[in-house]
Amino acid sequence: MDAGPDGSPSTGSGLDERAHARQRWAARASLTSAGLAVIAPIVTVESGGPVLVIVGALSIIVMMAALWWTLTRRGWLRFAAGTLAVAAPAASIALFAVAQLLWLPFLLLALWALAVWTGKVALSGTRSHAVQVVEYETPPPARPFLIMNPRSGGGKVERFGLKEKAERLGARVHLLDTSRSDGPEDVAALARAALDEGADLLGVAGGDGTQALVAAVAAEHDVPFLVVSAGTRNHFAMDLGLDREDPSTCLDALSDGVELRVDLGFADDHPFVNNASFGAYAAVVQSPEYRDDKVRTTLDLLPELLTHERGPVLTARVAGTGGPDIVIDMPQALLVSNNPYRTDDFAGLGRRERLDLGVLGVLGVKVEGAAQAAELLLGRYAEGLTAVSAREVVVECDRDEVEVGVDGEALILPAPVRCRIRPRALRVRVPRDRPGVPEIKPPLEWRRLRKLAATVGRTALPKSRHPKPGL
To answer: Cα separations (Å) of 71 from 117, 300, 373?
Structure first.
């Protein structure tokens, strides 16, 4: 049997050969575009094209360094750094214009964008990346119970008629009382009470913090959990592939749905479906002024937080990476997520390809100066950036308590904080038809693209038209 362009067996059918041909030509288009992006400055050497490209790259490095100074300085120094962050790339563009080569940077951007896009098209067709999420057929719930926050997402519960639709589908709905003077209702207690009364599904129309609390109860009692994308950002719903524009479609799972098995993260005993954040961001959101003026409060607090003059000094001990334990010392920001976020693709930042790998994602950022800030342009190769997967993370602090943002909720927990994951602990019921299921994109690997582009395809002709001799 012939091998496909990625080394996997080929069926030999004409349909497969056409698909493989598309992959080969996409790989060739990617390599050609990248080659043209390298050659373009060379053909403008008489006008100073190569030198201007180098100057342009340096201006971006200067901009990154200036942004670091903007965040860590105050007064006129902050103003001067902010001006430099704008002036550096503006001056580079002006030099291109003077040399009548203003078209060159835009051409280079277009060529590299085309190279990346066609490269991902080529690699997306290889079977090694065709990962399928397992769906389980289960009967519809008989007594579903849903908790809905009428204020979440700017009033999506009322705007999309979520309560009425859920009740038509047989669910019992509890609307949270957001006007209580004695604090918010205990959603975990509401969920447990509903289970005691015979509920066989728990669901939430609200933010990710509320989702996590009820999801932990569902996991504890091994009942399915329904996510309704009625929050503001709906990160968990996004990674489940749910429709974030019309949350009412999530309720279709009550009548025609399937189950997924996904992981659940914990910071000590506090569950999270997305992440737990430590460091500068977690400290900023604790400020009483943050809700009234987010930008001003952040700019006021960051200089001391980023230079360790204020806030916690953290040490993260990362275990279960498949190798030696890793120590991240004094990071300004630490994100521990329920499964890893994409860090190798700008278009995939903030997304998780899988929620069932049984590992935590760990992203630590440590920047000690402007040079390291500029180095962050290297992405996952930057010295100040640590991105790994792990089974456990213990976050230590130089004080007895540490600020933590758990799925966007501001908490203060006793140090150290142990983050762990329960693999496939949560049964999530989702609609059978989920238009938002993300397509898994492989990382861009130039070596694989070269092999794919060099593959010579052979179309298998029908045997009846080429009989063997002697038959």
So the answer is: 33, 9, 11
